[in-house]
Amino acid sequence: MAHAPWPAAGRPRERLVAHGPAGLSDAELVALMLRTGVAGRPVSAVAGALLARFGRVSRLLAAPLPEVAAVPGVGPVRAAQLAAAMELARRSLAEQMQARDSLASPAAVRGYLRLRMQHLGHEVFWAVFLDAQNRVIAAEELFRGTLTQTSVYPREVVKQALAHNAAGVILAHNHPSGVAEPSVQDQSLTRSLAESLALVDVKVLDHFIVAPGACLSFAERGLL
Fold first, then answer.
1. Residue 7 burial (10 A CB sphere; 0-12, 13-18, 19+)
2. Coil, strand, or helix at residue 62?
3. Rounded distance, CA 27 to CA 65, Å?
4. How far apart are CA 88 and CA 84, in angstroms?
5. 196 and 154 in contact (C-beta within 8 Å)?
6. Is 2 within 8 Å of 29 (Cβ atoms)?
7. Of residues 128 and 91, more confidently modeled
8. What is the pLDDT of residues 31-82, one digit of tens each?
9. Do residues 91 and 115 lie in contact, with contact meaning Cβ atoms separated by under 8 Å?
10. Are 30 and 45 within 8 A, CB to CB?
């Protein structure tokens, strides 16, 4: 399908200035980041091709650079621009987590973990370590691979909590399958970690399960 250039009054840059970024479509925002098209292929067509290839903005921004660069009209320079936008979003949310009480602003923690985890093709386990005022000390990936109660070692989580002198921890892992629901094993692992951490006076404040387009909180579900 041919993509005609936007008329002057409807160009994304002009619309952003007039109405703000929230008023633009995903394709328009991607087009603004790409800035220009290539010979015979307007930027609107390139933006549309990127969204068609990856399905949604979050998958596009989390995709490996070579995959993004391989879309016709993109190349390594434009792919790097998109990757930079994703990293800025991660850093912004990390700053928000560290600047305030994480329990007073759970959206920042949730958003950061989703950006880190939701489109990975493998399982990872993260821990966000907090001080006595619930401010973030550090957020770290501790394990990766197929996560079970035997592959996530409570002693290693306890070791890291003590190394950071943490008073609390928020746990998180992803479900690449796409279902953000806790399994029996997830609940058993959470109980085991909470009991181990309690021995050193570190409280598990939440456990997030992250999947594409979803994020479940154990605390909100009443599972802690």
1. exposed
2. helix
3. 19
4. 6
5. yes
6. no
7. 128
8. 888 877 666 678 888 888 888 888 877 778 777 888 888 888 888 888 888 8
9. no
10. no
CB 45 within 8 A of CB 72: no
Q: Could you tell me whether strands 168-174 and 136-144 are parallel, antiparallel, or unpaired per DSSP bridges?
A: unpaired
Give the pairing of strands 214-217 and 124-130. Answer: unpaired
* Separation of alpha carbons 211 and 214, rounded Å: 5
Going along the chain from its start, the domains and CATH numbers come out as 8-90 (1.10.150), 101-221 (3.40.140.10)
Rounded to the nearest integer, the mean pLDDT of the chain is 82
Smallest Cα–Cα separation from 135: which of 174, 163, 165?
Answer: 165
Contact 210, 113 (CB under 8 A): yes
- Helix, strand or coil, per DSSP, at residue 128: strand
Which backbone phi and psi does 50 adopt, to 5 degrees?
-65, -45
Question: Looking at residue 100, what DSSP letter applies?
Answer: S
pTM of the model as a whole: 0.66
Provide the pairing of β-strand 203-211 with 168-174. Answer: parallel
Residue with tokens 């008073």: 167
| 196 vs 2: CA distance, rounded Å | 60
CA distances from 188 to 36, 67, 210 (A): 52, 38, 18
| Alpha-carbon distances, residue 172 vs 53, 137, 193 (angstroms) | 28, 16, 12
What is the rounded distance in angstroms from the CA atom of residue 94 to the CA atom of residue 114? 12
